[in-house]
Amino acid sequence: MRTTNDLTPHAATAAAILPLVGGVANVTSVAHCMTRLRLGLRDRTLVREDALRSLPAVLGVVTDDDSYQIVLGPGTVARVTPEFEALVAGTAGAPDTGTADALAARGAEWKAARQQRNATPLKLLLRRIANIFVPLIPALIGCGVIAGLGGLLVNLGWLPSLTPALAAIASGFMALIAVFVGHNTAKEFGGTPVLGGAVAAIVVYAGVAKVTAFGMTLAPGQGGVLGALAAALLGTYVEKWCRRRVPEALDVLVTPTLTVLITGLVTLYVLMYTAGELSTAIGTGANWLLDHTGVFAGLVLGGLFLPLVMLGLHQALIPLHTTLIQQQGYTVLLPVLAMAGAGQVGAALAVYVRLHHDQSLRTTIRSALPAGLLGVGEPLIYGVSLPLGRPFVTACAGGAAGGAFVGFFSMLGDKIGSTAIGPSGWALFPLLKGTGGLVLTASIYAGGLLTGYVVGFAATYFFGLGRTVRGAVSGVCDSSKEGQDTDPGGNPPP
Fold it and tell me: What is the structure's pLDDT at 21?
């Protein structure tokens, strides 16, 4: 048997987390997203949250969801999750302590009530949208960085023989992203994934240029990811309808054929045209919004994004980002929304400076600040600003100011965007693309971040820490470390 000293750092982190979440008998599912280890737990009362938060690799804990989410940060979570899964699988057959049935019985009522509260139609829809698009983010990031590198080489006139190869590598995934969206959509909604990919592939097939719909000739890729999502969703319902009615002996032949045929015809003659018009409207609307109301739009988007993240509503923006990237090569919304993280960093720095006698809080900020600078805001949100209450509002003010700064330059014609979604903060620099060249684009984004830092800091320093908060901050921070996300008045966050 290996000792803790024999483990790799990521395996050691997994081994440290497991007993703190109630052991293998308490774990029902394991998954991860870009930054969080997502666990299904039978009984959350067995979680030792204070000890869990104190682990060096743990940046924060999010409990307002069906899954118990442990924030580990990008990169780390992708390495810890397999180790955690192997640990759970490796001990699943071992004799347990006899508590599994008791855990299930004790947690069943709590879990049912929790799911009932969170299972609103909007939350379920947003969760499913995230499940479709979040798995695509690593490929979007990788291709986006390569596209940025290729663009830099073209601008500098370096390695002209290499740039076509980089362009092919960066563009291959985006050319077929509709297929991946279709595959994930069918998988999420209970259909056969490969059939979802098959009907979505129609959207990007070059031969659609010979098809006429609504008196117009279709173009390959028309409708983009929205058309692919709609096609795969329709295909899933057609497949389920067929399986309920087709005899079992004929199911393997008839169901896939009817699914692809019916869905394919509807995709060609209805969905591609409709989704194409919607995609065009999204691109036109986003550009018009920033070109004509850039300061106001940036103010609103940058100021409201932190509350959207807190409520999970930011997931609704994922298809919009993906549509803009596919249509224009970059999303103009992400740099504006990224300013919310800058306001959060500025607010945390003000708390650090102002409350210099609270060493516990300052330690939390020091450990969470590097992640915040790279766009991972949960540790600062749930560990600092949200428990204190008012600093969360002043952080939003910093985000609004940074968004207005970026929007102002968009009104001047210097639009900036991101070639991929996922990263934020400083990590977004390699993905930036704009109309004014690399140096100007990076300068505008850096200016927005600086504005967010300064305004978030100033607003929090002068208005975000009243006497009551300063007097009670130690107690608040202690309670936040114990998982009791409360404001100074004892009320849970909104």
Answer: 93
